[in-house]
Amino acid sequence: MTILYRTFVGLALLSILFFVLLWILGHHSGFGWVIVLFFTFSAIGIRAFDSLKGFSFTVWVFAAVTMAMFYPDLITDVRGYNTENLIVPLIQLIMFGMGTSLSVKDFAGVVKMPKGVGVGLVCQYTIMPVVGVSLAMVFGFPAEIAAGIVLIGSSPGGVASNVMAFLARGNLALSVTLTAISTLMAPLMTPLLMQLFAGQFVPIDFFSMMVSIFNMVILPIAAGLIFNRIFRGKAKWLHDAMPVISMAGIVIIIAVITAAGRDYLLTIGLLLILAAIIHNAVGYFLGYWGCRLTGLDKISSRTIAFEVGMQNGGLAFRNRS
After folding, report:
1. Do both 38 and 183 map to the same domain?
2. CB 202 within 8 A of CB 76
3. In terms of residue numbers, what domain contains 55?
4. CA 72 – CA 77 distance, rounded (Å)
5. I need a surface site. Which of 4, 50, 133, 168 has the fewest CB within 10 A?
6. DSSP code, position 199
7. What tens digit of pLDDT does each residue of 263-275 get?
8. How many structural domains are present in the chain?
9. Termini Cα distance of the chain
10. Per the confidence metrics, is the pTM higher than 0.85?
11. Which range among 183-192, 201-210, 237-246 shows the weakest confidence by mean pLDDT?
């Protein structure tokens, strides 16, 4: 397997040479595919190195974003099918996978430590909205872009945070509990925070959003818990496969959302990307150290940092104006 991975490293290097050749010849139209192939080969190839294979998921995200930016039509519309319709099923699949890794005992343990849940929720709905409005003011974005930054900061934790907590050996039960509770609070908290920090409401149908949240998060987790209860120890293949399936689902969601918002990204350009990086980085930093200052242990703090820094972009996308 190592030989196969190293072969992909070689292909990644060849793609760089091919990119340079296209540049010299002036064939700029082929840049997109070459860059996509470079990230794809690299995502597979770096698994040959123990110190780098943990970055494979990140490189896959770069490949998906590159594809979405260069060829959005290939992602948003597949033979007449609107791929935005995939977002909810993929979130449900990911949450089901997380549920299969849990048991009722895991949640019972979290109930015994309400401090972590309370601190996590406070951090979730304070740090990111405040940082979001601050960045919008500092960068001087147009009103609709500024509102979008506040919206993503005012959204609940994303399913990606559950996957990252799982991969980072965090407190998965705490992560999923915070995601579920913060999502349930979203119909009230998101418009409230938008009014407070963005000066306007996000159009939300309270009842339909609650039903949507139940279908996207609570129901799949419950199904996963039931599955785990019935087939505990009998479906090891599923437990082994779900991290890969979940990461693939997140990559697809990112690609679809990026492709759908490509025009906005091109309008604002690197400034918006910089703001997004700062937004997430500050969220991770303040989320972790805010929890440490309250006396939470490192594992819980790391888990909550993921919750704070990773918002539910899919939910925000579905509730955009």
Report:
1. no
2. no
3. 1-70
4. 8
5. 50
6. S
7. 777 777 677 778 8
8. 2
9. 48
10. no
11. 201-210
